[in-house]
Amino acid sequence: MNYYTRTGDQMTTSVITKRVYKNHPLVECLGTIDELQSHLMLCTHYVDEKKQDLLKNLAASFFSYSADLIGVGSCRMTEDNVLALEKSVDEISQTLPKQQGFLLPGTTLANAQIHIARTVARRLERTLVTYARKKTIPAVLLKYINRVSDLLYVLARSVE
């Protein structure tokens, strides 16, 4: 099997049925999703089994998320996905002490890795907004990534 096609050598890439420039806002979003998934999976090496499962499920959710962003079939991400993230945020935050001011990321290796994933999620959100200003995307996608950032924040605090 060849791992190269040479079709991307001219500054374009294929997104479903069309070719677009590699700096197209959709490609930026998809690339940032790929980066976020990698960071989420890296985080699994620094946390306990329960948090590993949470992070692995979160990383896997971005396969459906990407398909919804591209517009393949009907939307898979729903308000239930957002509510599930909110439930996780609430459960974790109940175990945390009251926050006193700003927190410096990186108090532990796990904390640092999760904060890096959180900042990639925040960048994805900004990239999505840029894309959504040009093309309509399902509103649930913006809600979901916003909650992902919230979840990663409380998760990072939980491993300080």
Task: Explain what this protein looks like in three dimensions.
With 160 residues, the protein is mostly helical. The chain has a single domain (12-158), classed as Cobalamin adenosyltransferase-like (Hypothetical Protein Ta1238, Chain: A, Up-down Bundle), CATH 1.20.1200. 62% of the residues lie in helices and 5% in strands. The protein has helices at 25-43, 49-70, 79-93, 109-132, 139-158; strands at residues 12-15, 18-21. Strand 1 (12-15) and strand 2 (18-21) form a beta hairpin.
**What name does the CATH topology carry?**
Hypothetical Protein Ta1238, Chain: A
Shape: globular
The CATH homologous superfamily corresponds to Cobalamin adenosyltransferase-like
Number of E strands = 2
CATH class: Mainly Alpha
Unreliable spans are none
Helix content: 55-70%
Structural descriptors:
5 helices, Hypothetical Protein Ta1238, Chain: A, 2 strands, two-stranded antiparallel ribbon
Describe how the helices and strands are arranged.
Layout: E1 12-15, E2 18-21, H1 25-43, H2 49-70, H3 79-93, H4 109-132, H5 139-158
Antiparallel strand pairs: 1-2
Compact summary:
With 160 residues, the chain is mainly alpha-helical. It has helices at 25-43, 49-70, 79-93, 109-132, 139-158, and strands at residues 12-15, 18-21. A two-stranded antiparallel sheet has the order 1-2.
